[in-house]
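Researcher: We're reviewing a set of sequences before deciding which ones to prioritize for further study. For each one, I'd like a predicted 3D structure that I can look through quickly. This is DNA-binding response OmpR family regulator. If possible, include the structure in token form so it fits the rest of the review sheet.
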Amino acid sequence: MTTVLVVDDDLTVRDVVRRYLELAGHQVALADNGEDALAWIAAHKPDLVVLDLMLPGISGLEVCQRLRATSTVPVVMLTALGEEENRIAGLQLGADDYVTKPFSPRELALRVSSVLRRAAPAPLAGTIADGDLELDVSARRATRGGTDLSLTTREFDLLAYFLTHPGEACTREHLLEKVWGWDFGDQSTVTVHVRRLREKIETTPAKPTRIATVWGVGYRYDRA
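Model: Here's the predicted structure for DNA-binding response OmpR family regulator, in token form for your review sheet.
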């Protein structure tokens, strides 16, 4: 059974989310502030964190930043309608997905299951390599020149897609569908993840040689 930590200072939200996640088969822990959430994560290592960005004390953004310094545990953000800047900031810090308040608890449960499914090791999968870049799909481990890249779930999936579709010009909409599994959504999510991925795999992120921008279309992966 997977363990999901729900971090939100609203008791009603925590209770509703807990009930829906438990119905989906997850074990659920709760926290109402960032300090307690970070302490619980360090002690128990959950499989996924549902994180509200508007928290008392340490903000959700700071929790995400601190978490990403030591862990690649998947994070699904809860953001209020109209908080686009915070949502993009959260994605830049390494969050894997987001749901906008007011939200459908059923949609959140589906998003959580989707992220967990993508984070699970793929059975009998092999290794994908391009020059000094290597992805062990079974272990969900990415290295460059033998050094671990510490990719988030979505970053790993995005890079795996690029590596298996070299030379293909992909629109953001296409990547949302193939990597995120969304039929619709905020395409800036793709832009943010491509930027983060470039920072980890490109020698000079401002002048990428692997993930090229195709103006008016989207992106193309060029093998080394």
